[in-house]
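Hi V.,

Quick status before I head out on leave. The structure for the redesign project is tokenized and pasted below; the design run finished overnight.
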């Protein structure tokens, strides 16, 4: 074992102490009750996509998310979302971003058959915002960069042009 000057291991005694504190006070040592209250209610694992290693609950956002989100999975992928949350691969969406996910269902996204699909930038000229490509937008890419545009829209990084 390499010594770094900082002991990051927890002894069985310190683990028991922490567990006792949680049982008696409802909080971890060093955490305020309000900090503990910020932990989301993850729900249950009744989604057909539960326990697949990706968080499918649209209340969350981040690298640990599934590419396609369904409203019926909200609160029903607890294990995947809890693990990703604890690993800081997802965080809770704001109410505004949660509404954008629902609104995204009304947009005809198309497919990912465009020349620049799946490159992390939206190439569909119907949108505007920080996640748009900096290259020239082409008519032939309309509705052919669904994945990039849907993700950017749900993350609040693009909007539909008025």
């Amino acid at each position: 074992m390499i010594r770094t000057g900082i002991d990051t291991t927890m002894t069985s005694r310190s683990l028991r102490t922490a567990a006792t504190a949680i049982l008696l006070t409802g909080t971890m040592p060093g955490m305020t009750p309000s900090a503990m209250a910020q932990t989301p209610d993850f729900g249950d694992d009744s989604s057909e996509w539960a326990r697949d290693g990706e968080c499918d609950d649209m209340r969350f956002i981040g690298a640990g998310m599934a590419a396609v989100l369904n409203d019926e999975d909200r609160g029903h992928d607890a294990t995947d979302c809890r693990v990703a949350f604890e690993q800081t691969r997802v965080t809770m969406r704001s109410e505004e971003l949660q509404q954008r996910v629902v609104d995204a269902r009304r947009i005809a996204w198309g497919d990912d058959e465009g020349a620049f699909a799946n490159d992390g930038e939206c190439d569909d000229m119907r949108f505007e915002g920080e996640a748009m490509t900096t290259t020239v937008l082409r008519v032939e890419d309309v509705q052919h960069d669904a994945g990039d545009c849907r993700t950017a829209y749900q993350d609040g990084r693009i909007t539909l042009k008025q």
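Above is the designed sequence. The beta strands are 60-61, 91-92, 127-129, 158-160.

G. will cover questions while I'm gone.

Best,
W.
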